[in-house]
Amino acid sequence: MPPQNEKYEYLEHIADAKFRAFGKSLEETFENAALAMFNIIIDTGKVSGEIAKEVHVSSQDPENLLVDWLSELLFLFEVDEIIFWKFRVLEIKEENGEYSLSGLAFGENSNPEVHPFETEIKAVTYNQLMLEKTDDGWIAQVVVDL
User: What gap in Å lies between CA 39 and CA 89, rounded to an integer?
Assistant: First the structure.
């Protein structure tokens, strides 16, 4: 059961960062997982840019799709030097046994003087990965390697 009025929560982990994201739909859960991940890196409340990046990923199942989505966002952050703060998953669909996601990530160009990074994320892992449908919607659990 998700925390009251919360999109995600951080959980205890010895060496890395672990969180659970919640949503009424699978799309909303993926959006909130991205927000949780980027709030590990930086306070997204201090980011307001509207640079939009299209994101398209596909995978053999929803759990791997979640890892691919978060990994692609991390890749775009590192390569294009854009700090993301808002996410919109337009569609997640299953077709012929493959899942695909189309979405948008919004942010602004990285400026270390304005946006000091709090933590560096090396990778999204499969460790303790969980994606579960509940009576209230969906829960995703992710561990990222710091």
Answer: 18
Asked if residue 46 belongs to a domain, the reply is yes
Tell me how many domains the chain contains.
1
Instruction: Report pLDDT for 2.
Output: 58
What the block records as the tokens of 124 is 């999204």
Q: Whole-model pTM?
A: 0.94
pLDDT digits over 108-130, tens only? 998 888 778 878 999 999 999 99
* Sign for the pseudo-dihedral over CA of 75, 86, 26, 10: positive
Sign of CA dihedral 31, 34, 36, 38: negative
CATH number at residue 61: 3.55.10.10
Structural domain includes residue 30: yes
What's the one-letter identity of residue 80?
D
